[in-house]
Amino acid sequence: MSINSYQDLKVWQFSMNLAEKVYHLTYQFPKQETYKLSSQIQRAAVSVPSNIAEGHTRDSTLLGVRSEELLCAELETQLILGERLSYLDIQDLQTVLSKTDEVSRMIRGLQKALKAKL
């Protein structure tokens, strides 16, 4: 399969699914969190596929991939806090953390492949 667009990248597709799941989960947060934690979580989640797309478009994918791994860790931390504050139940947290871990592994794989090309 050839990659003609960032949308062809599996890591972009998986990270879009993750962002969608995160948005649905944060809709459950209390209203007072609308412009606080839920907003931060949403921004972190949408930044992952956005930066992958930007990096691919600029042909600087390796730089974008490095920051995506950090964003995944940031997202995980914020989600764990959401669970600790009882905004998420443990099953939802485990589901989304599993997806975040999967995206992180894909990002590391992409990093290795891009470094091998250099």
UniProtKB/TrEMBL annotation:
This is Four helix bundle protein. It comes from Chroogloeocystis siderophila 5.2 s.c.1.
